[in-house]
Amino acid sequence: xxxxxxxxxxxxxxxxxxxxxxxxxxxxxxxxxxxxxxxxxxxxxxxxxxxxxxxxxxxxxxxxxxxxxxxxxxxxxxxxxxxxxxxxxxxxxxxxxxxxxxxxxxxxx
Length: 109
Hints:
Layout: H1 2-7, H2 10-13, E1 14-17, E2 20-23, H3 25-31, H4 37-40, H5 47-51, H6 53-64, H7 76-89, H8 93-99, H9 105-108
């Protein structure tokens, strides 16, 4: 698939239609009779948003962080990463100072 995509002329993938640039034009054209119009014509989304991966990740991280202290974290993802970093580098606070945005990462966990 990658080789085929690399050989496909750019003009087939990106087109001006009605004064608007249409990305993935060939792919949209190929599936316009098979998929609902709201899918074929929707605006391009970041992969994790368009695929539903972001919602799945948020749900899983929220469940994984249920028993972890939040301590000012802005999201379940930040809580989880903070927990992993502090757990892995508790003996080397110099590393935590380089990567963490928390005043005292060891004391806050």
